[in-house]
Specification:
The complex is a heterodimer. Helix content of chain A is 49%, strand content 13%. In chain A, helix 3 runs parallel beside helix 5. In chain B, the strands form 3 sheets. A 5-stranded antiparallel β-sheet of chain B has the order 1-2-3-5-4. In chain B, 56% of the residues lie in helices and 13% in strands.
Chain lengths: 172, 369
Protein backbone atom coordinates (compact mmCIF):
# COMPACT_ATOMS: atom_id res chain seq x y z
CA UNK A 1 0.00 0.00 0.00
CA UNK A 2 1.15 3.52 -0.75
CA UNK A 3 -0.62 6.87 -0.56
CA UNK A 4 -3.09 7.94 -1.83
CA UNK A 5 -4.24 4.59 -0.45
CA UNK A 6 -5.47 5.16 3.06
CA UNK A 7 -4.69 3.30 6.24
CA UNK A 8 -1.50 1.78 7.53
CA UNK A 9 1.00 0.76 6.26
CA UNK A 10 0.64 3.21 3.34
CA UNK A 11 2.04 6.17 5.27
CA UNK A 12 4.76 3.98 6.82
CA UNK A 13 5.95 2.87 3.38
CA UNK A 14 6.02 6.46 2.12
CA UNK A 15 8.04 7.68 5.09
CA UNK A 16 10.37 4.69 4.87
CA UNK A 17 10.98 5.16 1.14
CA UNK A 18 11.77 8.83 1.65
CA UNK A 19 14.22 8.21 4.47
CA UNK A 20 15.97 5.27 2.84
CA UNK A 21 16.34 7.17 -0.44
CA UNK A 22 18.92 9.41 1.27
CA UNK A 23 21.37 6.49 1.41
CA UNK A 24 19.99 3.90 -0.99
CA UNK A 25 18.48 3.69 -4.43
CA UNK A 26 14.84 2.92 -3.70
CA UNK A 27 12.21 1.48 -6.01
CA UNK A 28 8.69 0.92 -4.71
CA UNK A 29 6.69 -1.84 -6.41
CA UNK A 30 3.12 -1.22 -5.42
CA UNK A 31 -0.48 -1.99 -6.14
CA UNK A 32 -2.32 1.10 -7.22
CA UNK A 33 -1.87 4.03 -9.53
CA UNK A 34 -0.58 7.57 -9.29
CA UNK A 35 1.40 7.32 -6.05
CA UNK A 36 2.22 10.44 -4.07
CA UNK A 37 5.66 11.56 -5.16
CA UNK A 38 8.72 11.12 -2.98
CA UNK A 39 11.93 12.77 -4.02
CA UNK A 40 14.58 10.22 -5.05
CA UNK A 41 12.18 7.26 -5.16
CA UNK A 42 11.03 5.51 -8.30
CA UNK A 43 7.74 3.67 -8.59
CA UNK A 44 6.39 0.71 -10.49
CA UNK A 45 2.62 0.41 -10.24
CA UNK A 46 0.49 -2.66 -10.69
CA UNK A 47 -3.11 -1.72 -11.40
CA UNK A 48 -5.35 -2.98 -8.61
CA UNK A 49 -8.42 -2.72 -10.77
CA UNK A 50 -7.58 -5.90 -12.69
CA UNK A 51 -8.92 -9.30 -11.59
CA UNK A 52 -7.02 -10.90 -8.71
CA UNK A 53 -5.05 -13.52 -10.65
CA UNK A 54 -3.93 -11.06 -13.31
CA UNK A 55 -2.69 -8.53 -10.81
CA UNK A 56 -0.90 -11.17 -8.74
CA UNK A 57 0.90 -12.45 -11.83
CA UNK A 58 1.83 -8.96 -12.96
CA UNK A 59 3.13 -8.08 -9.49
CA UNK A 60 5.19 -11.27 -9.41
CA UNK A 61 6.87 -10.62 -12.77
CA UNK A 62 7.54 -6.96 -11.97
CA UNK A 63 9.02 -7.89 -8.60
CA UNK A 64 11.10 -10.67 -10.15
CA UNK A 65 12.63 -8.24 -12.64
CA UNK A 66 13.45 -5.63 -10.00
CA UNK A 67 14.78 -8.19 -7.54
CA UNK A 68 17.45 -9.31 -10.01
CA UNK A 69 19.21 -5.94 -9.71
CA UNK A 70 18.33 -5.16 -6.09
CA UNK A 71 20.38 -5.80 -2.96
CA UNK A 72 17.38 -6.08 -0.65
CA UNK A 73 13.71 -6.92 -1.06
CA UNK A 74 11.64 -5.32 1.70
CA UNK A 75 8.00 -6.33 1.63
CA UNK A 76 4.97 -5.36 3.66
CA UNK A 77 2.78 -8.18 4.91
CA UNK A 78 -0.46 -9.03 3.15
CA UNK A 79 -1.31 -12.00 0.93
CA UNK A 80 -1.14 -10.12 -2.37
CA UNK A 81 2.48 -9.11 -1.63
CA UNK A 82 3.63 -12.11 0.42
CA UNK A 83 2.66 -14.63 -2.25
CA UNK A 84 4.62 -13.09 -5.14
CA UNK A 85 7.47 -12.03 -2.84
CA UNK A 86 7.75 -15.56 -1.46
CA UNK A 87 8.00 -17.00 -4.97
CA UNK A 88 10.56 -14.37 -6.02
CA UNK A 89 12.69 -15.20 -2.98
CA UNK A 90 12.39 -18.87 -3.94
CA UNK A 91 13.91 -18.27 -7.38
CA UNK A 92 16.26 -15.32 -6.77
CA UNK A 93 18.98 -15.01 -4.17
CA UNK A 94 18.12 -11.40 -3.26
CA UNK A 95 17.39 -11.46 0.48
CA UNK A 96 13.77 -10.89 1.42
CA UNK A 97 12.69 -9.07 4.55
CA UNK A 98 9.06 -8.89 5.54
CA UNK A 99 7.67 -6.11 7.68
CA UNK A 100 4.43 -6.86 9.50
CA UNK A 101 3.16 -3.30 9.34
CA UNK A 102 -0.41 -4.07 8.29
CA UNK A 103 -2.13 -4.82 11.60
CA UNK A 104 -5.52 -5.29 9.93
CA UNK A 105 -4.05 -8.11 7.84
CA UNK A 106 -2.61 -9.81 10.93
CA UNK A 107 -6.12 -9.83 12.39
CA UNK A 108 -7.70 -11.19 9.18
CA UNK A 109 -5.17 -14.00 9.04
CA UNK A 110 -6.48 -15.39 12.31
CA UNK A 111 -9.71 -16.32 10.50
CA UNK A 112 -8.29 -17.42 7.15
CA UNK A 113 -6.39 -20.63 6.54
CA UNK A 114 -5.37 -19.54 3.03
CA UNK A 115 -3.90 -16.23 4.21
CA UNK A 116 -2.13 -18.03 7.05
CA UNK A 117 -0.66 -20.54 4.60
CA UNK A 118 0.54 -17.75 2.29
CA UNK A 119 2.10 -15.90 5.21
CA UNK A 120 3.91 -19.01 6.43
CA UNK A 121 5.14 -19.66 2.88
CA UNK A 122 6.56 -16.13 2.62
CA UNK A 123 7.95 -16.00 6.18
CA UNK A 124 9.90 -19.24 5.56
CA UNK A 125 11.61 -17.58 2.60
CA UNK A 126 12.33 -14.34 4.41
CA UNK A 127 15.74 -13.62 5.89
CA UNK A 128 13.98 -11.86 8.73
CA UNK A 129 10.48 -10.79 9.75
CA UNK A 130 10.48 -7.29 11.21
CA UNK A 131 7.63 -6.28 13.43
CA UNK A 132 8.72 -2.93 14.85
CA UNK A 133 6.51 -0.08 13.71
CA UNK A 134 7.59 3.51 14.36
CA UNK A 135 5.10 5.86 15.93
CA UNK A 136 2.39 7.47 13.84
CA UNK A 137 3.01 11.07 12.93
CA UNK A 138 1.14 13.34 15.38
CA UNK A 139 -1.46 15.55 13.76
CA UNK A 140 -0.91 19.28 13.81
CA UNK A 141 -4.21 20.88 14.70
CA UNK A 142 -5.22 24.47 13.99
CA UNK A 143 -6.02 25.11 17.65
CA UNK A 144 -3.47 25.13 20.41
CA UNK A 145 0.28 24.71 20.23
CA UNK A 146 2.17 22.59 17.74
CA UNK A 147 2.80 19.17 19.39
CA UNK A 148 6.57 19.67 19.42
CA UNK A 149 7.30 17.07 22.11
CA UNK A 150 5.24 14.44 20.31
CA UNK A 151 6.91 15.34 17.01
CA UNK A 152 10.34 14.90 18.60
CA UNK A 153 9.34 11.49 19.94
CA UNK A 154 7.96 10.58 16.50
CA UNK A 155 11.17 11.60 14.70
CA UNK A 156 13.23 9.72 17.28
CA UNK A 157 11.18 6.54 16.74
CA UNK A 158 11.89 6.78 13.03
CA UNK A 159 15.59 7.44 13.51
CA UNK A 160 15.79 4.32 15.65
CA UNK A 161 13.83 2.25 13.15
CA UNK A 162 16.02 3.33 10.21
CA UNK A 163 19.14 2.69 12.25
CA UNK A 164 17.94 -0.85 13.04
CA UNK A 165 17.10 -1.53 9.40
CA UNK A 166 20.48 -0.27 8.20
CA UNK A 167 22.14 -2.53 10.71
CA UNK A 168 20.13 -5.51 9.48
CA UNK A 169 20.82 -4.67 5.81
CA UNK A 170 24.54 -4.22 6.38
CA UNK A 171 24.77 -7.71 7.89
CA UNK A 172 23.30 -9.36 4.81
CA UNK B 1 -41.16 41.42 -5.99
CA UNK B 2 -40.46 37.81 -7.00
CA UNK B 3 -40.89 36.32 -10.42
CA UNK B 4 -44.58 35.54 -10.45
CA UNK B 5 -44.48 32.71 -12.96
CA UNK B 6 -42.04 30.41 -11.18
CA UNK B 7 -42.80 31.18 -7.56
CA UNK B 8 -46.52 31.04 -8.14
CA UNK B 9 -46.17 27.82 -10.06
CA UNK B 10 -44.19 26.33 -7.18
CA UNK B 11 -46.78 27.45 -4.65
CA UNK B 12 -49.58 26.08 -6.82
CA UNK B 13 -47.66 22.82 -7.22
CA UNK B 14 -47.02 22.20 -3.56
CA UNK B 15 -50.50 23.29 -2.42
CA UNK B 16 -52.07 20.90 -4.94
CA UNK B 17 -49.73 18.10 -3.90
CA UNK B 18 -50.37 18.67 -0.20
CA UNK B 19 -54.12 18.54 -0.77
CA UNK B 20 -53.73 15.13 -2.43
CA UNK B 21 -51.02 13.68 -0.24
CA UNK B 22 -52.17 14.74 3.24
CA UNK B 23 -55.06 12.25 3.43
CA UNK B 24 -52.74 9.48 2.19
CA UNK B 25 -50.20 10.33 4.85
CA UNK B 26 -52.94 10.29 7.47
CA UNK B 27 -53.83 6.78 6.33
CA UNK B 28 -50.23 5.73 6.81
CA UNK B 29 -50.26 7.10 10.34
CA UNK B 30 -48.61 10.50 9.89
CA UNK B 31 -49.76 14.02 10.66
CA UNK B 32 -48.16 16.97 8.90
CA UNK B 33 -46.79 19.77 11.04
CA UNK B 34 -48.33 23.22 10.65
CA UNK B 35 -45.02 24.92 9.75
CA UNK B 36 -43.33 23.56 6.66
CA UNK B 37 -39.98 25.37 6.36
CA UNK B 38 -38.79 23.37 3.35
CA UNK B 39 -41.51 24.74 1.08
CA UNK B 40 -41.14 28.50 1.27
CA UNK B 41 -38.56 31.17 0.57
CA UNK B 42 -36.17 30.48 -2.31
CA UNK B 43 -36.86 26.75 -2.21
CA UNK B 44 -38.51 26.97 -5.63
CA UNK B 45 -35.13 27.80 -7.15
CA UNK B 46 -33.40 24.75 -5.68
CA UNK B 47 -32.58 22.32 -8.39
CA UNK B 48 -29.28 20.53 -8.09
CA UNK B 49 -26.93 20.83 -11.03
CA UNK B 50 -24.89 17.67 -10.73
CA UNK B 51 -27.03 15.15 -8.87
CA UNK B 52 -30.20 13.50 -10.14
CA UNK B 53 -32.62 15.85 -8.45
CA UNK B 54 -36.30 15.56 -9.20
CA UNK B 55 -39.20 17.64 -8.04
CA UNK B 56 -40.32 16.51 -4.61
CA UNK B 57 -41.73 17.85 -1.37
CA UNK B 58 -39.80 17.57 1.87
CA UNK B 59 -42.23 17.70 4.76
CA UNK B 60 -42.07 17.67 8.52
CA UNK B 61 -44.57 15.35 10.16
CA UNK B 62 -45.28 13.34 13.31
CA UNK B 63 -46.07 9.65 13.56
CA UNK B 64 -49.49 9.61 15.18
CA UNK B 65 -48.85 6.47 17.28
CA UNK B 66 -45.95 7.93 19.29
CA UNK B 67 -45.63 11.55 18.15
CA UNK B 68 -42.17 10.73 16.74
CA UNK B 69 -40.98 13.45 14.40
CA UNK B 70 -40.26 12.30 10.87
CA UNK B 71 -39.07 13.73 7.57
CA UNK B 72 -41.29 12.75 4.68
CA UNK B 73 -40.13 12.99 1.09
CA UNK B 74 -42.94 12.63 -1.41
CA UNK B 75 -43.10 12.91 -5.17
CA UNK B 76 -44.78 11.65 -8.30
CA UNK B 77 -42.12 13.15 -10.55
CA UNK B 78 -40.19 10.37 -12.33
CA UNK B 79 -36.79 11.86 -11.50
CA UNK B 80 -37.92 12.40 -7.93
CA UNK B 81 -39.06 8.79 -7.59
CA UNK B 82 -35.74 7.61 -9.03
CA UNK B 83 -33.90 9.74 -6.47
CA UNK B 84 -35.87 8.28 -3.56
CA UNK B 85 -35.31 4.73 -4.78
CA UNK B 86 -31.64 5.45 -5.38
CA UNK B 87 -31.33 6.77 -1.84
CA UNK B 88 -32.69 3.47 -0.50
CA UNK B 89 -30.25 1.49 -2.61
CA UNK B 90 -27.38 3.63 -1.35
CA UNK B 91 -28.51 3.23 2.25
CA UNK B 92 -28.61 -0.56 1.93
CA UNK B 93 -25.23 -0.57 0.21
CA UNK B 94 -23.64 1.54 2.94
CA UNK B 95 -24.34 -1.30 5.36
CA UNK B 96 -22.53 -3.69 3.09
CA UNK B 97 -19.37 -1.81 2.24
CA UNK B 98 -17.06 -4.46 3.54
CA UNK B 99 -13.98 -2.50 2.65
CA UNK B 100 -14.95 0.56 4.66
CA UNK B 101 -12.87 1.08 7.74
CA UNK B 102 -15.34 3.07 9.76
CA UNK B 103 -19.08 3.06 10.40
CA UNK B 104 -21.59 5.34 8.77
CA UNK B 105 -24.70 6.71 10.43
CA UNK B 106 -27.89 7.77 8.69
CA UNK B 107 -31.55 8.21 9.63
CA UNK B 108 -33.54 5.00 9.84
CA UNK B 109 -36.21 4.46 7.24
CA UNK B 110 -39.67 4.27 8.77
CA UNK B 111 -41.73 3.80 5.64
CA UNK B 112 -41.25 3.52 1.92
CA UNK B 113 -44.32 2.99 -0.16
CA UNK B 114 -45.70 3.68 -3.60
CA UNK B 115 -49.31 4.76 -3.57
CA UNK B 116 -51.43 6.10 -6.43
CA UNK B 117 -48.40 7.15 -8.46
CA UNK B 118 -46.60 8.75 -5.52
CA UNK B 119 -43.43 7.50 -3.85
CA UNK B 120 -43.46 8.27 -0.14
CA UNK B 121 -40.36 7.95 2.00
CA UNK B 122 -40.51 8.60 5.73
CA UNK B 123 -37.27 8.70 7.73
CA UNK B 124 -36.62 9.41 11.35
CA UNK B 125 -35.99 13.06 12.10
CA UNK B 126 -32.63 13.42 13.76
CA UNK B 127 -33.01 15.95 16.57
CA UNK B 128 -30.03 18.09 17.33
CA UNK B 129 -29.72 19.60 20.80
CA UNK B 130 -27.63 22.39 19.38
CA UNK B 131 -27.32 23.62 15.82
CA UNK B 132 -23.98 23.15 14.10
CA UNK B 133 -23.08 26.83 13.98
CA UNK B 134 -23.91 27.33 17.65
CA UNK B 135 -21.17 24.88 18.62
CA UNK B 136 -17.71 26.23 19.51
CA UNK B 137 -15.35 26.41 16.55
CA UNK B 138 -13.15 23.58 17.83
CA UNK B 139 -16.17 21.29 18.05
CA UNK B 140 -17.32 22.20 14.54
CA UNK B 141 -13.83 21.41 13.29
CA UNK B 142 -13.67 18.12 15.21
CA UNK B 143 -16.97 16.83 13.84
CA UNK B 144 -16.36 17.90 10.26
CA UNK B 145 -12.91 16.33 10.22
CA UNK B 146 -14.35 13.15 11.70
CA UNK B 147 -17.01 13.06 9.00
CA UNK B 148 -14.49 13.49 6.19
CA UNK B 149 -12.18 10.86 7.64
CA UNK B 150 -15.11 8.45 7.88
CA UNK B 151 -15.95 8.98 4.24
CA UNK B 152 -12.32 8.61 3.16
CA UNK B 153 -12.20 5.29 5.00
CA UNK B 154 -14.06 3.74 2.08
CA UNK B 155 -11.63 3.60 -0.78
CA UNK B 156 -12.57 1.51 -3.75
CA UNK B 157 -9.51 0.32 -5.54
CA UNK B 158 -9.74 -3.33 -6.42
CA UNK B 159 -11.63 -5.14 -9.12
CA UNK B 160 -14.14 -6.53 -6.62
CA UNK B 161 -14.74 -3.11 -5.13
CA UNK B 162 -15.44 -1.54 -8.51
CA UNK B 163 -18.04 -4.18 -9.30
CA UNK B 164 -19.86 -3.49 -6.04
CA UNK B 165 -19.85 0.27 -6.29
CA UNK B 166 -20.71 0.51 -9.98
CA UNK B 167 -24.10 -1.01 -9.20
CA UNK B 168 -25.03 1.41 -6.46
CA UNK B 169 -23.25 4.66 -5.80
CA UNK B 170 -21.87 5.31 -9.23
CA UNK B 171 -18.39 6.64 -9.73
CA UNK B 172 -16.83 9.75 -11.18
CA UNK B 173 -13.31 9.78 -12.54
CA UNK B 174 -11.27 12.64 -13.89
CA UNK B 175 -12.76 12.38 -17.38
CA UNK B 176 -16.19 12.89 -15.85
CA UNK B 177 -15.06 15.93 -13.90
CA UNK B 178 -13.42 17.48 -16.95
CA UNK B 179 -16.51 16.76 -19.05
CA UNK B 180 -18.87 18.15 -16.40
CA UNK B 181 -16.84 21.32 -16.10
CA UNK B 182 -17.04 21.87 -19.83
CA UNK B 183 -20.83 21.51 -19.45
CA UNK B 184 -20.76 24.12 -16.65
CA UNK B 185 -18.79 26.40 -18.95
CA UNK B 186 -21.25 25.96 -21.83
CA UNK B 187 -24.16 26.71 -19.51
CA UNK B 188 -22.51 29.79 -18.07
CA UNK B 189 -21.56 31.12 -21.51
CA UNK B 190 -25.15 30.64 -22.64
CA UNK B 191 -26.58 32.65 -19.72
CA UNK B 192 -23.83 35.23 -19.38
CA UNK B 193 -22.51 35.66 -22.90
CA UNK B 194 -21.97 39.42 -22.35
CA UNK B 195 -19.98 39.03 -19.16
CA UNK B 196 -16.39 38.99 -20.44
CA UNK B 197 -14.86 38.81 -16.96
CA UNK B 198 -16.74 35.67 -15.97
CA UNK B 199 -16.17 34.05 -19.36
CA UNK B 200 -12.43 34.60 -18.97
CA UNK B 201 -12.45 33.20 -15.43
CA UNK B 202 -14.35 30.09 -16.48
CA UNK B 203 -11.93 29.60 -19.39
CA UNK B 204 -8.97 29.78 -17.02
CA UNK B 205 -10.70 27.40 -14.62
CA UNK B 206 -11.33 24.89 -17.37
CA UNK B 207 -7.69 25.08 -18.49
CA UNK B 208 -6.52 24.54 -14.91
CA UNK B 209 -8.73 21.50 -14.39
CA UNK B 210 -7.80 19.96 -17.72
CA UNK B 211 -4.06 20.56 -17.23
CA UNK B 212 -4.17 18.96 -13.77
CA UNK B 213 -6.56 16.13 -14.48
CA UNK B 214 -4.03 13.55 -13.30
CA UNK B 215 -3.98 15.16 -9.87
CA UNK B 216 -7.77 14.90 -9.75
CA UNK B 217 -7.58 11.24 -10.78
CA UNK B 218 -4.98 10.53 -8.09
CA UNK B 219 -7.59 11.02 -5.39
CA UNK B 220 -10.55 9.40 -7.10
CA UNK B 221 -12.14 6.19 -5.88
CA UNK B 222 -13.07 7.60 -2.48
CA UNK B 223 -16.55 7.71 -1.02
CA UNK B 224 -17.65 11.31 -0.95
CA UNK B 225 -20.85 13.08 0.07
CA UNK B 226 -21.10 15.66 -2.66
CA UNK B 227 -23.46 17.94 -0.74
CA UNK B 228 -21.81 17.85 2.66
CA UNK B 229 -23.06 21.04 4.30
CA UNK B 230 -24.67 21.58 7.73
CA UNK B 231 -28.25 21.21 6.46
CA UNK B 232 -27.37 17.73 5.22
CA UNK B 233 -25.98 16.29 8.42
CA UNK B 234 -26.94 16.09 12.07
CA UNK B 235 -24.80 15.51 15.15
CA UNK B 236 -26.09 13.35 17.97
CA UNK B 237 -23.69 12.73 20.82
CA UNK B 238 -20.43 11.87 19.10
CA UNK B 239 -22.09 10.53 15.96
CA UNK B 240 -22.65 12.25 12.66
CA UNK B 241 -25.70 11.31 10.68
CA UNK B 242 -25.45 11.83 6.95
CA UNK B 243 -28.71 13.02 5.42
CA UNK B 244 -29.49 12.89 1.72
CA UNK B 245 -27.72 9.60 1.17
CA UNK B 246 -28.37 9.84 -2.59
CA UNK B 247 -25.62 12.46 -2.75
CA UNK B 248 -22.99 9.89 -1.88
CA UNK B 249 -20.83 8.53 -4.65
CA UNK B 250 -17.27 7.42 -5.36
CA UNK B 251 -15.20 10.20 -6.77
CA UNK B 252 -12.45 12.58 -5.82
CA UNK B 253 -12.17 12.58 -2.05
CA UNK B 254 -11.96 16.37 -1.99
CA UNK B 255 -15.21 16.96 -3.85
CA UNK B 256 -17.11 16.88 -0.56
CA UNK B 257 -14.46 19.02 1.15
CA UNK B 258 -14.71 21.52 -1.71
CA UNK B 259 -18.47 21.87 -1.34
CA UNK B 260 -18.08 22.33 2.41
CA UNK B 261 -15.22 24.83 2.23
CA UNK B 262 -16.93 26.93 -0.45
CA UNK B 263 -20.00 27.00 1.79
CA UNK B 264 -17.89 28.07 4.77
CA UNK B 265 -16.30 30.89 2.76
CA UNK B 266 -19.67 32.52 3.25
CA UNK B 267 -20.88 31.11 6.55
CA UNK B 268 -17.83 30.52 8.73
CA UNK B 269 -14.42 31.73 7.54
CA UNK B 270 -12.57 30.59 10.69
CA UNK B 271 -13.78 27.03 10.11
CA UNK B 272 -12.72 27.23 6.47
CA UNK B 273 -9.29 28.45 7.58
CA UNK B 274 -8.97 25.75 10.23
CA UNK B 275 -9.68 22.97 7.74
CA UNK B 276 -7.26 24.40 5.18
CA UNK B 277 -4.64 24.62 7.92
CA UNK B 278 -5.22 20.96 8.73
CA UNK B 279 -4.78 19.85 5.11
CA UNK B 280 -1.65 21.93 4.57
CA UNK B 281 0.00 20.68 7.75
CA UNK B 282 -0.96 17.03 7.76
CA UNK B 283 -1.40 15.89 4.19
CA UNK B 284 0.70 15.72 1.06
CA UNK B 285 1.09 18.72 -1.23
CA UNK B 286 -0.75 16.77 -3.95
CA UNK B 287 -3.77 16.48 -1.64
CA UNK B 288 -3.93 20.22 -1.12
CA UNK B 289 -3.65 20.77 -4.88
CA UNK B 290 -6.44 18.27 -5.50
CA UNK B 291 -8.59 20.15 -2.98
CA UNK B 292 -7.90 23.44 -4.78
CA UNK B 293 -8.89 21.88 -8.10
CA UNK B 294 -12.12 20.49 -6.68
CA UNK B 295 -12.97 23.88 -5.17
CA UNK B 296 -12.57 25.44 -8.61
CA UNK B 297 -14.77 22.68 -10.04
CA UNK B 298 -17.52 23.24 -7.47
CA UNK B 299 -17.31 27.02 -7.92
CA UNK B 300 -18.06 26.50 -11.60
CA UNK B 301 -21.13 24.56 -10.56
CA UNK B 302 -22.31 27.29 -8.15
CA UNK B 303 -21.87 30.01 -10.75
CA UNK B 304 -23.85 27.96 -13.27
CA UNK B 305 -26.61 27.40 -10.69
CA UNK B 306 -27.08 31.12 -10.11
CA UNK B 307 -26.62 31.99 -13.79
CA UNK B 308 -29.45 29.56 -14.60
CA UNK B 309 -31.59 31.05 -11.82
CA UNK B 310 -31.44 34.54 -13.32
CA UNK B 311 -34.24 33.90 -15.82
CA UNK B 312 -36.50 32.51 -13.04
CA UNK B 313 -36.18 35.62 -10.90
CA UNK B 314 -37.13 39.26 -11.03
CA UNK B 315 -37.08 42.34 -8.83
CA UNK B 316 -35.05 42.10 -5.63
CA UNK B 317 -34.37 38.40 -6.04
CA UNK B 318 -32.96 38.98 -9.53
CA UNK B 319 -30.65 41.71 -8.21
CA UNK B 320 -29.61 39.36 -5.42
CA UNK B 321 -29.00 36.53 -7.89
CA UNK B 322 -26.85 38.81 -10.06
CA UNK B 323 -24.78 39.76 -7.02
CA UNK B 324 -24.44 36.06 -6.17
CA UNK B 325 -23.00 35.40 -9.64
CA UNK B 326 -20.52 38.24 -9.10
CA UNK B 327 -19.64 37.14 -5.57
CA UNK B 328 -18.90 33.53 -6.51
CA UNK B 329 -16.92 34.78 -9.49
CA UNK B 330 -14.82 36.81 -7.03
CA UNK B 331 -14.27 33.63 -5.02
CA UNK B 332 -13.30 31.78 -8.20
CA UNK B 333 -10.90 34.55 -9.22
CA UNK B 334 -9.14 34.28 -5.86
CA UNK B 335 -9.07 30.47 -6.05
CA UNK B 336 -7.45 30.60 -9.49
CA UNK B 337 -4.70 32.71 -7.93
CA UNK B 338 -4.28 30.16 -5.14
CA UNK B 339 -5.78 32.56 -2.60
CA UNK B 340 -8.91 32.90 -0.51
CA UNK B 341 -11.34 35.68 -1.36
CA UNK B 342 -10.86 38.85 0.70
CA UNK B 343 -12.86 39.22 3.88
CA UNK B 344 -14.34 42.59 2.86
CA UNK B 345 -15.77 41.09 -0.36
CA UNK B 346 -17.56 38.44 1.72
CA UNK B 347 -18.83 41.02 4.23
CA UNK B 348 -20.08 43.37 1.52
CA UNK B 349 -21.92 40.54 -0.20
CA UNK B 350 -23.51 39.34 3.07
CA UNK B 351 -24.77 42.83 3.94
CA UNK B 352 -26.22 43.25 0.47
CA UNK B 353 -27.78 39.78 0.56
CA UNK B 354 -29.41 40.35 3.95
CA UNK B 355 -30.99 43.58 2.74
CA UNK B 356 -32.55 41.87 -0.26
CA UNK B 357 -33.47 38.46 1.14
CA UNK B 358 -37.17 37.92 1.69
CA UNK B 359 -38.52 37.46 5.21
CA UNK B 360 -39.70 33.99 4.21
CA UNK B 361 -36.25 32.97 3.01
CA UNK B 362 -34.65 34.31 6.19
CA UNK B 363 -37.04 32.10 8.19
CA UNK B 364 -36.26 29.09 5.97
CA UNK B 365 -32.53 29.63 6.49
CA UNK B 366 -32.97 29.60 10.28
CA UNK B 367 -34.60 26.17 10.14
CA UNK B 368 -31.94 24.60 7.95
CA UNK B 369 -29.10 24.11 10.42
Amino acid sequence: MFPPEIGEPASYVKELAGRLSKDYQVTVVMYGRLPEKVSGVSFICVDKRKPLLLRLLRFYFVLLKEAKTADILYAENGGSVELPAGFVAFFISTPLFIHTGDIAVMERIKNSKILKYIQNFAFKRARKVISEIPLERPEIMPFGLKPQKEMDVYFKSWDEHISKLKNIFSNV
Amino acid sequence: MFNIDNKEKWEEYYKNELAIISPALNNFGFRLEKEQPHLGGEKYLMQAVTTASGKKLILLARRVSDNKRVIIKVTRDIKGIYELEHERVCRAALKNIIFAYKDFFYPAEILFVKDKGYAISAQEYIEQKISFFDRPLEEQFYFVLKAFKTQEGAHATTYRHKKIIAKTFGEKNTEDYVHMFSEFKSGILKCLSDNKRINLLIDKAESLITANSEMIEQYCGFLTHTDFVPHNFRIVGDDIYLLDVSSIRFGNKYEGWARFLNFMTLHNRPLENALIFYIRNNRAEEEYRSLELMRVYRLGEIILFYANSLEKTSGDLKILTESRVEFWSDVLEAALQGKQVAEDIVNRYCEFRDKLRSKEEKERQKELY
